[in-house]
Structures are given as C-alpha cells and as structure tokens.
Amino acid sequence: MRQLTALDAQFLRVETATTTAHVAGLAILDSADGTVTKDALADLLLARLHLSPALHLRVAEVPFGLDHPYWVSDPHFDIGNHLFETALPLPGDDQQLADAVADIHSRRLDRAHPLWEMHLITGLAGGRVAVYTKVHHAAIDGVSGAETLAALLDLTPDGHLRRRGGAAATPTRSAARTSSLRRTASPPTAPPPANLPPATDGAPSAPVVAAIQPPVVTAGLQGAVDLPNGQPVACLDPTASGAPGPLTAEAAPHVPATTESTPGGQHDLADKARGGSSGGRQAPGLFGMLAGAAVRTMTHPFTAMRSVVRAAGDLDAIPVIANVPGAKRIAEAARVVAGERRDRPGMPPLTAPRTPFNGPITAQRHLSFGSLSLKDVKNVAKAHGISVNDVIMTLCTSALRSWLSEHDALPEAPLVVAVPVAVRTGSAKEVVGNQISAMVTPLPTNVADPKERLRAVGAAMAQAKRRFALAPATWPSELCSVLPAPLATLATPAVFRLAGVAFPPINLIISNVPGPQFPLYLCGGRLLSYYPLSVVTDMSGGLSITCFSYDGMIDFGLVACPERVDDVWSLIGHLRAALDEVLDERVGDEFRDGVGVDLVAG
Fold first, then answer.
1. Whose CA, among 40, 226, 308, 320, lies 20 to 30 Å from 464?
2. Residue 22 phi/psi, 5° resolution?
3. Are 111 and 11 in contact (CB under 8 A)?
4. Which of 86, 68, 140, 76 is nearest to 113 (CA)?
C-alpha cells in the first residue's frame, strides 16, 4: 500500500468528459497459426500479473477527496474486467484498425478496477492480429511502461510455455477458460518459500526485460558535461550502442525523484511485486484516511512553501511563467539562495505560437500509425554528424511544418514542444507511479531549408540537454504539490481548459521510448510493430507524437482530437516525406549500403 504522489494524482484529476489520461500501445503480430487468442492472453496475464504492480493495484479514494488516493491490492481481481476481443469486418485494413482503436482509446478506464485494459483485435488483413493495451498514466511512466511490456514478451515463440531454463510445458484447456474467462487472481501477499525455484511459469527471460527497459544511467552526454555531484549525465547520443537512445531522455541523469511520505508510514510497492511483507496491505480505514488527510492539511503550508522555493529556480524554464517580466532574475536569485554555485545555460524564448493544435478538445479521438527505417535515420545522422534523436526530432519538425503550411497556419515563430524525461531511480523500477520531468524546447518550424532546419534542431536539442544535465527540472512535480488535494481536484480541469484557450504553454508533446533491435514474441506470435499512443489535453494540445524503436524500425503513433487535427494520417505521410528530404545524394552514395555503419544493435 502506498499513497499516490501529487504528480500521480494530477493524472487522475486531469480526466474530464473530454480528456483521458492513459497511455497505450498497439502491437501488430503474426497470428502464428492462431496461437494468439483471448484464452492464451488470459493465461499469460494471470501467470505474469505479479511482475508489474500496475497490473494488480487499484485506486482507493479518500472520502470527499480530502487527500491523495492510495494504491491497494484488488482482492477480487477478475481478468474479465480487463481483457476483451474485437473482430474487424473485411477487409481489415489499417484505417479500420485505427478507427476501432481510436474508439477504445477515447474511453476512460474504470477506477473500480486496476487501471488497465487489453484488447485483442482480429480480422486484420494478411492473417495478422493486433493487441491494444492501455494503462493509466497515474500508474506508469515511460520506463515502468516499458518494463510492463517486457514482462509479457518472450525471446522465442514458445517462451510463454516454458519455465526459465526449463522444458516446454504442455498447454491445457479448461471449461472455465473457454466459456466466460471470468477467472480471478490474487496478487502475492507474502514472500515465497525459500525452496521454490527462482522463476515461475511463463516468466519472461532476463534479456527481454533488459532489452526493453530504457537505461537510467549510461555514459556521458555529447559535450562531456558532468552533473554537479560529479556523476556523468545520461547518454542522449547513444551511437556506441547502435540503437536510438531516448529522444525523451528516458536514459536521463540518475537523479532522485520527488517523493512524498504517506500518513502512517511509507510502504514500497516493489515489496508487493516481489511478494514482500507489505504486499497484502490495504488502504487505511475511514478513520486512518481522515487522520492522514488532517495531518497533511496541517503540514501543507510548509510543503507548499518548500515546493514553491524549489520550483522558483526553474522559473526561466517553465512555459508561460518564463515570459513574465523578472522571471529570470527571480530564478537566478532563488538559485543563489539555494546555494547553487554553478551557472545554468540560458533558455531560448518559450512562447508557444497560436496553431490549430491548440484550443479546447472534444472527447473524440483519431489516430494514425506508421514506421520509418532505423537504418535510414542512422544514415542521415552519420552523414550530418548529429545524433539519431536529433534526426527524429527534425522529422517531426518538418512534418509539422508541412502540415501547418498545407492548412495555411504556419506561424512565424517556432513551435514549442515538451519532451518527457525519465528521472526514475534504480530502486524504484518496480514501484507503481511516475518519476518524470520534462524538457521544453523550441522546434524550428519557421526554418525553410531542410539542411538548415536539421542543424537548428540539433542546436536547440543540445541546449535543452545541456540545461537538463546540469539541473534536471523538478518543477512539474513541485507545481503539482503547491495546492492542497481538495483544491487541486476542483481547479485542475478549469486551469487546463483555460490554458488551452488563453495561453497554451506548449504546442504539443513529442516522446520516444527506445526498444530492442531483435524480434520478440507474444503468446507465440511474432511482434511485427509496436505503435505507442499517448495523451492529448486542452493544455498540452490536441496532437501528440510518440515513437518506439524496435527491430530495425521506428514505429510512430499519433493521437489527435479531430476538432484540432482532422487529417492525422497526412502527418504520417509528411514524416516519410521528411525522411526522403534529408536522405540526399551524399547519404545515398556513402552510407545507404551501410558501409562502416553499425545500423542495428542486436
């Protein structure tokens, strides 16, 4: 049992009739002669439920919203509340799939159960199947989401039938499984006996977890910048590994995340996931919740003041606030008072121009998806002496510029985007919730020449990375802690709606999660593509772009409110055209055949 942090609770509060706050992924699979079925998925989920806390914990609300909710075990877990099946009509093309998934993606998760769903979608052309999975953002961030995905995947087609290091098991069928799938499972509530084998049936092999889980700390940043405590910062240009590192700095500096203690003591959900002593705890009773809320209410003025002081040092990096006269001087003064002796790199102007992406959104969602060659992206990076991440950001910049030009809406100023950054510590890998921050940076959509735009993106990203490396931003968590829980619950929807209309802080969110560069399998079916799908809100804009690198490709998932972007598929075409635009003759002659280039990490 653990109480949600202010940041986790904010993801719950942001949900309204028009806004959902779950993140999702659309996996396209070879059906493997029909082995990917609802029954097989149910067996796999029940066997591996304990490997991810987000899958077996539900939210327990505090009466009257007086305090942040708690994560508690669901003693009546029922797989039938989470696993569903849909069949597409002929011909089962990508447009039909996107429409079906968009409808599911637009619906909020039921908070009476653990906050996730999985949908098996059959009837796709070419004998394929799709598996769409969504998990509430209050429960996972980019790193923990990748770990949850890793828990369900295998290195071999028969991995779901094996013990780790053992022989293939004989699959069984039961009448209960083939009828209603209303099976229940209880999360582990006590440490396993010492004489049990180290792995359970169906547990994924360690290489899968290592491959999908984004690294938290790696080698130094391009430019050899060190953190103030002497640690090297994360590698945001991981050309040594041959795979695109996280554009979002998922391999971010190893910095402590903001934590909050819960009334009555702190209980680590990692213990629950491992079957530890705290695994079976439930939320405190009514009296305990109210007592905890009373304590937090009394101490909140001090907590809020501490958060304001901490956030003050980042005033020049917070959109909208950074443009207030005197914000930079206040930020400098706050850093001096805090004893910070190292100068931080300056920030460029962060005024988001007006675009069709920004404004009130509706409950409807449209989405599109597509893939680009990782080899081609790496070729461009090699030819121009920049990082793979910078090339991906350039492709997004060019695609957005093309779309805005088509709609006669290209602003003179550059767009402003938020790039999520993981600040998850090694000890928190199995803890449900978020440990994230954000880099905010301009995108030079106002630069016409493609090569010049490529260089401008590289310069903007380098500046943002340098600033984050020296002083990882904690302001998203700190700002969420300023208001007491009851007031935050009332104010958050109104603030988001007002910001989208009056002063949008950013134009959109662009995110990337790195993945493995070899095939993986789900219930025996080979994973062909994995398209990540994210959140759109009134404040962050009616369009989000997310990508995931896997098995030699970069898979893009775009989510949009049709009121803001009514032709989201055209952006996929613009992404492909943007890559062709920078794959010039020099790239083709010297690099297209892969001479001297480690194209795909294996």
1. 308
2. -110, 155
3. no
4. 76
Give the integer Cα–Cα distance in Å for 326 and 601: 48
Distances (CA, A) of 585 to 318, 573, 592: 41, 21, 10
The SS3 call for residue 570 is: helix
**One-letter amino acid for residue 369 of the chain:** F
Q: What φ, ψ does residue 420 adopt, rounded to 5°? A: -60, 145
Q: Which amino acid is at 318?
A: I
Task: Tally the C-alpha atoms within 13 A of residue 125's C-alpha that lie toward its C-beta.
Answer: 8
H or E element, residue 233: none
The number of CA neighbours under 13 Å toward the Cβ of 548 is 28
Are 50 and 152 contacting, i.e. CB atoms less than 8 angstroms apart? no
Tens of pLDDT, residues 465-502: 888 877 766 788 888 888 999 999 999 998 998 888 88
Q: How far apart are CA 172 and CA 159, in angstroms?
A: 16
Q: What pTM did the predictor assign?
A: 0.80
pLDDT digits (tens, 9 = 90+) for 114-173: 999 999 999 999 889 999 999 999 998 877 777 888 889 999 998 888 744 444 443 333
pLDDT tens digits, 37-47:
999 999 999 99
Any bridge partners for residue 24, and if so which?
A: 134, 533
Q: What distance in Å separates the CA atoms of residue 104 and residue 124, rounded to the nearest whole number?
A: 17
CB 399 within 8 A of CB 574: yes
Write out the DSSP string of 102-154. HHHHTSPPPTTS-SEEEEEEE--GGGEEEEEEEEETTT--HHHHHHHHHHH-B
**Amino acid 424: pLDDT:** 66
Q: Which of 51, 130, 54, 55 is nearest to 522 (CA)?
A: 130
> How far lies 299's CA from each of 111, 263, 267, 475, in Å?
29, 11, 20, 20
From CA 135, how far away is CA 298, in angstroms rounded?
34
| Alpha carbon distance 594, 307 (integer Å) | 50
**Under 8 Å between Cβ of 414 and 444:** yes
Q: What burial class does residue 210 get, using C-beta atoms within 10 Å of its C-beta: 0-12 exposed, 13-18 middle, 19+ buried?
A: exposed
Question: What's the distance, CA 99 to chain centroid?
Answer: 22
Beta strands across the sheet bearing 2-3? 2-3, 70-73, 57-60
Q: Which residues pair with 26 in a beta bridge?
A: 132, 531
Question: Does the structure show a pLDDT above 90 at 566?
Answer: yes
370 in helix, strand or coil?
Answer: strand
> Tokens standing for 39?
């029954």
Paired residues of 461 in beta bridges: none
Between CA 66 and CA 82 the distance in angstroms is 29
Task: Give the Cβ contact number of residue 285 at 10 Å.
Answer: 9
Q: How many CB atoms lie within 10 A of CB 239?
A: 18
Closest CA relative to residue 143, chosen from 239, 49, 60, 23? 23
| Helices 569-582 and 450-470, axial angle in degrees (round to 10) | 100
pLDDT band, very low/low/confident/very high, at 309 (cuts 50, 70, 90)? confident
The angle, 0 to 180 degrees and rounded to 10, between the axes of the packed helices 38-48 and 142-152 is 120
